[in-house]
């Protein structure tokens, strides 16, 4: 089936702000019949109970037939929770419209579809029951009752709706629709600020810092800021698996008070090899854009450069691919061997002199929602594709530095033409338009690290608003296959 929708929230800073998004693979975990209802049981004791006759289509009419469920439990004590939790920043809107930051005791992600891929949900007249297991280390501090929160993709916030009751090591509550459901303590807003440097005191940009149940990414000066909830203790650390081996010991942060700004002690990491250089055009002008670095068949980091110059930390003794995409679409692609020790390797000037930037383009023409045959070309910041071994589909995503983005799914991992009904598109608004019918023509399908290129057209819809896309083009980098 592909991937769950991924959404991240961030507080923009002056200059460039780096946001890391990790997509969770989605597959059918349970199957029930809508007429009789049923229960989706998970191995950790969590469950989703669906009442008979409660499943509805997108238009609210009753659905009869097989229901394919995708149900995933998210453990907030898992170190990878910070990468995949919806929103990423745990920001929330309470039922009284006040803002809060959440501390989670467990999440259930629930999506339902018909065998043909039609989105399904449950009716509010026949609520479903969610039983969510509380992580063992949090059971003793878990309150007797706790608000339930669902994730609103239109606003990027968790919204309060309902209450769950603690029964032994589980929270039990009822819901009237399915999305990500979170059992959370709402704290007032406060924040932490910190800085990450290397062994010589140089600022390290692009470091992923685990801040309680969220993450922050250091800016070009090594600084990070993250909102956190009041009233709970947590730790801050740099995890090796998120930073190609760079790590730090966890720092214990005491429970903070409302509007407090806590200065985290300086985090000093071991020294790693550094690559420096400058991207230029054939006229010796610096060009601006985004640098992606790959080794071990993985994208290890994405770094925006507003000057053309770059300084990036890398793992030692790796064959690394550096792919720079300018905001005008020019591409500089090179492979180098990283130094075996913690030294600086200056690559000098890297130039783009050949080819037509339009050869690698992410763009579309939109009609509808107030636009008439408007050409949109993404100043691409993210362009990636994955093949799902389990679901036998390829998913691609292209996102611009503004609010334009699109994602598409097509069967297999080869060139060809496909009529499909899976994808999404966003332009200038927070609403995401879901694909209704899409024709995709894949013209190139490279190996891992190479390009997937093609064209697309079709119709997309958000609530009652429909748009038509023509002359769509995509050009993304293929990442390793996902299991």
Keywords:
single chain, 483 residues, mainly beta, Chondroitinase Ac, Chain A, domain 3, Immunoglobulin-like, 7-stranded mixed beta barrel, 5-stranded mixed beta barrel, globular
What does the largest sheet look like? 7 strands, mixed, barrel
What strand order characterises the main sheet?
33-34-35-37-38-39-40
Q: Quick one: CATH class of the largest domain?
A: Mainly Beta
- Mean model confidence by pLDDT: 88
- CATH topology-level name of the largest domain: Chondroitinase Ac, Chain A, domain 3
Count of discrete alpha- or pi-helical segments spanning 4 or more residues:
1
The structural domain count equals 4
CATH architecture of the largest domain: Sandwich
Q: Could you give the distance between the termini? A: 12 Å
Work out the radius of gyration: 23 Å
Strand content: over 45%
